[in-house]
Structure formats: C-alpha cells, structure tokens
Amino acid sequence: MPIASLQRLLPIDVCRMIYFDTNATAPLLPGVLDAMLPFLSGRFGNPSSKHPIGSEARAAVENARHAVASFLRASPGEVHFTSGGTESVGIAFQSALAKGERVALLSAAEHACVLDTAMEWRSRGNHVEIVPVDQHGNIDLSELDRLLRSSGPAFVSVIWVNNETGVIAPISEIAELCRRHKALLHVDGVQAPTRIEIDASQVPFDYLSLSAHKFHGPKGVGVLFVRSNAPKSPLTPGHQERGLRGGTENTAGIVGAAEALRLQTNWRDEERRQSNLRDQFELEALNCISGSHINGAGTQRVANTSNLHIPHRSAADMVFALGRAGLCASAGAACSTGGRPSHVLLAMGYDEDRANSSVRFSIGNETTIQDIKQALAILASVHESTLPNWGNV
To answer: At what angle do helices 315-325 and 369-385 cross, to 10 degrees?
Structure first.
C-alpha cells in the first residue's frame, strides 16, 4: 500500500506508543539518568586532568569499570570503555591484526557491523571465511572445526545473541574449539547482558563487545572486554595508558552504563517474566495470522525477541503501518538500510519472500501484559488493513 494511503488509514497517536523494539535501543532506566546527571553539570571534570575536579571524574570512571567487571566476572583491567559496539568490534579486529592473524572466521548470521569490518579486513589482503548456520540460525560447529583445522592461527567472531531472531549461540563450545586450535575468539555480546549469563571467568573468549543502550543504559557508550593475555593494539599508540583508544572518556555515559547493570541484579526474574509475555504474544500472533511462523523457533532463544514471518505482507509496509497504529517494531537490525532482505534469514535458508516479510518484535523491562494484548490487537488490525504483497502470493 502506498505510504500516503497508510497515513490516511492509520493516524499516529503520539500519546500512547507501545514499544516492541528494545533490540534496537532500550529506554533508560530512571536510576541511570539520576546517576549520570551530576557528571553533566557540576561534576564536569576531565578524567585525565590531575587536579581534584579531574580526579573526581577519574574516580567515577574507575568505579564504573569495577562495576562492569564485577557483572562480567572479569578483572577491572580487562574492561575498556568505547563509543559503542561497532567501535569495540573494530578494536578487537585491529588487535588480531596486530598479533599477525590473517584469517577471520565468522558466522553468516553476524551483525552487519561485524560483516562490514570483516570485509574491510579482507580488502587489506586478509582471508575471510563465512561459516554457515542451520535453519534455526545455529552455527555449524563441525564446519567451524574443519576451518580451524585447515586455516592455522585464526581470529573467530561469533554473535552470542542474534539481534534479529534472539537465537543464542553455544559460546562455551565455540570457545573450547578456538582454544583447542589456538584461535582468538571475539564474541559480539551486544544483545546478551541481562538476558543470559555472562561469566568471563568460565567461558574462555578473548574479546567481548557490548553496547550500553541495549541494556537500558545511554547511547554512545560501549564496552570491550579484552582478556589479560589477549593481544592488544591501541588505535592511538602512546595515548592513554589505561585503554585501547584515545580521546576524553565520556564520564556521564560510562557512569550510566555501569548503573544500568547495577540496577538489574534481578535480571533472571525479569527474564522469566518476559519469557511468559513473549510466549503469549507468539501463541496469539500465530493463531490470528494464517500461515505465520516464528523464525528461530525450535532452538534456544532469549526471552524478549520474536521474529514473526507474516505471509504475503511486506515487512517494511507492516512496520510502517504498525507504527502509525501505535506499535513500534522493526524489519530487522535498526542500522540496516531499507530495501534489502534480512541477511540473517537468508543465511538460515529462507527465500527472499520470507526474509522480506518478517517483522521483529522485541520487548523490554517496561513491557506489560496490557501492552501484549494491545499489540496483538494492533497487529491483527494492521494485518487485515494492509494490502498483500502480490509478488509474494
């Protein structure tokens, strides 16, 4: 249906939007903003300054570093703050290059920022191999093992929780494979905190990238865990002895990131609550939309994510119409450009029609049972009022 027609059919009610796009960005927890505000006003010092006001900011950054390390069960010296997940990924790749690794292995279902970084890596003359995933989105461990045997020293990058389907990768098994073959392992853990257990003391990955705004912290702040014995390559050599990057630390953002983790100590209870909400949403959605399917069902997924195939409907049109009706969802990763089918769903073996007619719904801490009921009503209504994509019929 043309956009103008949808606008006439579905006027926006800006007073009440139901937000099912937490995987794109999660709203700040109230306590996070409270923790950040002093460092946006009176406690404004530069953490690198040596006077008392700067020392106060430095202390806040280091306290935050200890808090994040405690959450990850890591050493504070292994925690580095960045501008976000993409920069953390880039530093991990850069570190592997500095060690001399020239082979990268990654799954076909990685986030676009990892795939793009790997392609840039390839443009420098390095070798990149894509490991296939099965119909559920699980990486082919036997193929990864084969490639590790044949490649020699390698750098492996695997997404822990898929941002589109919520499928959880067997990181412990992958880490053991990498250790056996003396390969470096980077884990894209952006969607993992407060959804699954993260224990750096038990799972031997070398690098772990995180982004605060995915776990109810502020935008513009990321974390890179670098194991103490892993290769390190400062992007600005000689600048900032404490970290892997140059520039003045975002004190307020770093404090907010740590506070977001501190405030979610009961995340396991929240995970169970969201699991019940997600299951009810999926059951009713499958009942009300004939021929619909959940992409990634049948394997281990996080509790908050549903990737719903809606036959004979364009995902882009559905997302637009849902938004006009008051329900925020997405057709895939927020940073993906429009018009292209999901590479994740294509990697799972689905055709372009299915990849172009699947919508991601991702709930969060603020989601209620009433939100679920209203979302289902909106979904049913929009499905009926949105014209089929006749090319998919």
So the answer is: 120
pLDDT one digit per residue (tens) for the chain, 393 residues: 444 444 444 455 545 799 999 999 999 998 999 999 999 988 888 888 889 888 899 999 999 999 999 999 999 999 999 999 999 999 999 888 777 778 899 999 999 999 998 898 888 888 999 999 999 999 999 999 999 999 878 999 999 999 999 999 999 999 999 999 999 999 999 999 999 999 999 999 999 999 999 999 999 999 999 999 998 876 544 444 455 677 889 999 999 999 999 999 899 999 999 999 999 999 999 999 999 999 999 999 999 999 999 999 999 999 999 999 999 999 865 555 456 889 999 999 999 999 999 999 999 999 999 999 999 999 999 999 877 874 554
Q: Three-state secondary structure along 96-151?
A: HHHHCCCEEEEECCCCHHHHHHHHHHHHCCCEEEEECECCCCCECHHHHHHHHHHH
Q: Do residues 255 and 271 both lie within one domain?
A: no
Instruction: Note the pTM of the prediction, 2 decimals.
Output: 0.90
One domain for residues 214 and 341: no
Instruction: Say how many domains are in the chain.
Output: 2
* Continuous segment of H or E residues that includes residue 349: none
Q: Is 328 an active-site residue?
A: no
Give the whole-angstrom CA distance, residue 195 versus residue 214. 11
186 lies in which domain range?
A: 30-262
Q: Which of 113, 178, 328, 335 is catalytic?
A: 335
